[in-house]
Design the sequence.
């Protein structure tokens, strides 16, 4: 059967599921389609024309290369297709977003046919996705006296590709749709279990609202009732988009409610409108900007205050809320983009100017942030070539300088990495373009990142980036047909692009399914570094890291830059002394609990950088804190360490990078070797005192300062989803932190999970020692609930094997992963035993393995959202309680939550943590 017949067969299969033909990205299929177009009598000629015109992915896909070549032939008269005139061919090229389409246009523009050259030039003036190869051609032509090249470059210097775009409508009417009450996880918009389909946008769109067809139909009905309005998705009494950046979530919202990008490019929409009572989660808001969308902080419910300004609480100590205005589903509102106000029937409801900063309005006008980033670079190139100043077309970056005020840690990092500024010292609120040192792509968003790179016509990683890694952790647990189809293709693309890849497309080294955050934490060897990663838990304990959508990751890989406002910071310090039976995870949870108590239930961490003065904990252990800051709704976190601690962390990182080199993971450019060299240089600087570890200034200004009293941490602390709370908005939040005694030693636990990015080598050693202790106390180890254990990295497994702890775990396990025969199917039933799973995300991700529906899970992981780790049944809601490794282990041995006496006995003699507040001045 021919490749075209295979495509027709696939079309019929998709039709059965209500899907249109999948967009074409392969050269072989499109070449066959072109062959059929040229055959005037071919039975499939008409369909082939439609596929060619309306169903080819743009950018640098191999299909785009074939399409651009054929369109150029038509323009030059080398091929004749009556349905595609030269003028129409130019129009097609104008929608193909760079790469081979720009190359084809340059061929014509710099060719000998003057009339065609002028037409090509007019199209080129609208394009922004040009790379060095393209701009070099233009510059050389200009130097050789080309009038056409001069005309194009002069247009670029004026940024006409931006200035000639239509302005944003002054009034945008929206109709509201409440997608949920309380915080809305991006899992609702793009479930983790559907990660395999993210790169097939129409197919993935079917999972919107976790496949809830009633909600989907309600949304469609609203659109039908209000064809002239946009649907605004709302998190009522909550924050929209918590948990993950999830570009696929915004893509789905745009697909259902947004504006088509091009009539020639299917299933790619932009300009969604999203809102929340408490706004949009920071990393998700970045994703909204990528699509040129609008994200509103509604504040339609507010906490009630007494005469003294204190929050009024109910009998349970919860703040009492008052509705300021209704956004019930079906309410028609008007956004005035000029006044930056939200109206209902001409009555002003809210100032929404934060959603319409000059930069965000530029994103909206340009159709997304990529076009602005590339446009600025293109204008700078053109101005430099012409020897003129850059014309102030784009809004100037906001620069805030406060005389006499010191810098927080994040302000220092951004000042060091900023590009294109006036040179002034910048404080929080300044909008900054900054160079990026480390970039991470994970496997369930990586396919989208590769698509984004293709669509922005990027072919190689920016030389500015010190190192970049493509993981295989989110698909590590089950090597099923979906993974076999997607992951090798992803690894091949990213390896060719210049990333270090967990899997080697050439098969020279063994597949590494290490958790991406752990790898990034190791390869980040600079405390002044900026890290961008395709996951909300990109929260390194060295430098400052930002979780990002797949598109922002693509932009960082292609340009080596990221643009954002410098965030405000909240300073966290510690006092008191940890009790010997407490785990550092309890300190993490206590930080969230004590912060909320200190600030009357207000989360001062949300949208800000948590500057934690960790002092004495190495990067491995400190990562437990920084990782959890995603659940604190912080934008990022920075660890302030003592010099000696940072040296120890860098030595560990250097050794682990060397192991990756020894396994053959380095590339031709010696990226990993360069990171080892960078670590050695930094260690020398620290040891000699040339450059101490990162310190904020003593007179830095913080949004708030939080002091955590370790003396108050007297019991293990558990984050509880509170699945049966009468107030739906209070379910599935990470703010409900309870002490172990709350459960009275009687709450049944159906499954335990020790794994995810929240654990480190020390957790595995604690597990091994607890098992030995139980055997010594009771003669044997019996599990009354299953215990799933997934070490985060192979390095940790190797270290445990060398130190004897892995043998202990194997002794008590009933299942040990086998890399030579990985599981092909997800486990659906569990026995009461220990499962030693392959390094990777496992249950935490929820896209492969899950607990049995209705289970109560006690886990070390990060996610407690509905359906993430465990689904509900008709009789019982599944619940995922989050706690420390000792609590999880003991809960599975007992089959219930332990009492304090049982817990203290189980950890007796085990060093759970060496954390103590630093006695040194960690400011400059």
Sequence:
């Amino acid at each position: 059967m021919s490749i075209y017949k295979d495509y027709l067969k696939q079309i019929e299969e998709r039709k059965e599921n209500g899907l249109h033909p999948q967009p074409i990205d392969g050269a072989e299929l499109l070449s066959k389609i072109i062959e059929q177009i040229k055959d005037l009598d071919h039975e499939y000629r008409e369909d082939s024309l439609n596929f060619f015109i309306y169903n080819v992915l743009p950018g640098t896909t191999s299909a785009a290369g074939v399409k651009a070549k054929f369109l150029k032939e038509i323009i030059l008269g080398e091929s004749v297709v009556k349905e595609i005139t030269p003028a129409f061919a130019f129009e097609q090229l104008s929608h193909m977003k760079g790469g081979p389409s720009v190359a084809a246009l340059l061929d014509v523009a710099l060719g000998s046919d003057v009339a065609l050259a002028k037409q090509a030039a007019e199209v080129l003036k609208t394009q922004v996705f040009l790379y060095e190869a393209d701009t070099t051609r233009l510059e050389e032509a200009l130097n050789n006296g080309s009038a056409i090249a001069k005309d194009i470059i002069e247009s670029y210097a004026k940024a006409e590709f931006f200035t000639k775009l239509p302005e944003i409508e002054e009034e945008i009417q929206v109709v509201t749709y409440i997608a949920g009450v309380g915080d809305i996880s991006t899992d609702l918009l793009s479930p983790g279990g559907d990660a395999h389909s993210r790169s097939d946008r129409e197919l993935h769109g079917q999972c919107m609202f976790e496949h809830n067809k009633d909600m989907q139909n309600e949304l469609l009905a609203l659109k039908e009732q209000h064809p002239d309005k946009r649907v605004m998705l709302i998190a009522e009494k909550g924050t929209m988009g918590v948990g993950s950046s999830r570009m696929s979530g915004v893509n789905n919202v745009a697909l259902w409610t947004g504006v088509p990008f091009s009539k020639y490019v299917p299933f790619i929409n932009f300009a969604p409108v999203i809102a929340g009572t408490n706004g949009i989660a920071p990393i998700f808001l970045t994703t909204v900007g990528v699509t040129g969308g609008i994200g509103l902080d509604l504040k339609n419910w507010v906490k009630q205050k007494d005469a003294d300004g204190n929050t009024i609480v109910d009998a349970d100590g919860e703040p009492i809320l008052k509705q300021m205005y209704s956004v019930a589903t079906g309410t028609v509102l008007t956004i005035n983009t000029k006044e930056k106000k939200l109206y209902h029937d001409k009555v002003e409801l809210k100032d929404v100017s934060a959603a319409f900063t000059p930069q965000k309005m530029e994103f909206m006008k340009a159709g997304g942030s990529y076009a602005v980033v590339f446009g600025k670079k293109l204008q700078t190139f053109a101005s430099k070539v012409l020897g003129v100043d850059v014309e102030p077309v784009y809004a100037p970056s906001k620069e805030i300088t406060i005389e006499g005020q010191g810098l927080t840690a994040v302000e220092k990092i951004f000042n060091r990495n900023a590009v294109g500024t006036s040179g002034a010292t910048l404080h929080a609120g300044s909008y900054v373009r900054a160079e990026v040192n480390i970039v991470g792509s994970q496997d369930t968003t990586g396919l989208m990142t590769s698509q984004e790179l293709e669509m922005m016509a990027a072919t190689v990683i920016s030389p500015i980036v010190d190192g970049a890694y493509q993981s295989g952790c989110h698909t590590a647990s089950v090597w099923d047909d979906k993974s076999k189809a997607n992951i090798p293709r992803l690894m091949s693309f990213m390896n060719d692009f210049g990333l270090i890849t967990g899997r080697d497309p050439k098969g020279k080294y063994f597949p590494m399914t290490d958790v991406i955050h752990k790898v990034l934490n190791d390869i980040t060897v600079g405390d002044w570094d900026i890290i961008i990663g395709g996951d909300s838990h990109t929260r390194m304990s060295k430098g400052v890291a930002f979780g990002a959508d797949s598109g922002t990751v693509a932009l960082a890989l292609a340009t080596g830059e990221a643009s954002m406002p410098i965030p405000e910071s909240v300073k966290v310090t510690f006092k008191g002394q940890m009790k010997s039976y407490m785990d550092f995870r309890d300190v993490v949870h206590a930080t969230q609990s004590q912060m909320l108590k200190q600030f009357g239930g207000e989360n001062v961490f949300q949208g800000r950088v948590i500057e934690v003065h960790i002092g004495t904990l190495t990067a491995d252990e400190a990562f437990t804190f920084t990782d959890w800051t995603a659940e604190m709704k912080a934008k990022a976190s920075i660890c302030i360490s003592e010099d000696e601690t940072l040296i120890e962390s860098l030595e560990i990182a250097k050794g682990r990078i060397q192991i990756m080199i020894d396994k053959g993971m380095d590339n031709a450019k010696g990226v990993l070797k360069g990171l080892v060299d960078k670590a050695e240089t930094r260690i020398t600087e620290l040891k000699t005192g040339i450059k101490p570890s990162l310190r904020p200034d003593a007179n830095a200004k913080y949004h708030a300062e939080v002091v955590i009293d370790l003396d108050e941490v007297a019991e293990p602390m558990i984050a509880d989803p509170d699945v049966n709370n009468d107030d739906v908005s209070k379910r599935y939040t990470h703010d409900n932190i309870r002490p172990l005694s709350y459960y009275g030693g009687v709450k049944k636990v159906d499954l335990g999970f020790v794994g995810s990015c929240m654990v480190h080598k020390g957790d595995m050693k604690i597990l091994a020692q607890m098992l030995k202790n139980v055997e010594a106390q009771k003669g044997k180890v019996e599990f009354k609930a299953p215990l799933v254990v997934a070490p985060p990295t192979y390095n940790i497994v190797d270290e445990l094997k060398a130190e004897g702890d892995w043998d202990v775990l194997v002794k008590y396990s009933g299942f040990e992963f086998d890399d030579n025969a990985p599981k092909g199917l997800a486990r659906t039933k569990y026995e009461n035993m220990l499962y030693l799973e392959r390094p990777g995300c496992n249950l935490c991700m929820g896209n492969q393995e899950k607990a049995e529906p209705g289970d109560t899970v006690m886990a070390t992981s990060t996610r407690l959202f509905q359906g993430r780790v465990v689904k509900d049944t008709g009789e019982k809601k599944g619940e995922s309680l989050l706690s420390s490794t000792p609590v999880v282990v003991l809960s599975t041995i007992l089959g219930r939550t332990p009492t304090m006496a049982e817990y203290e006995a189980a950890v007796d003699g085990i060093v759970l943590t060496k954390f103590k507040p630093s006695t040194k001045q960690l400011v400059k």
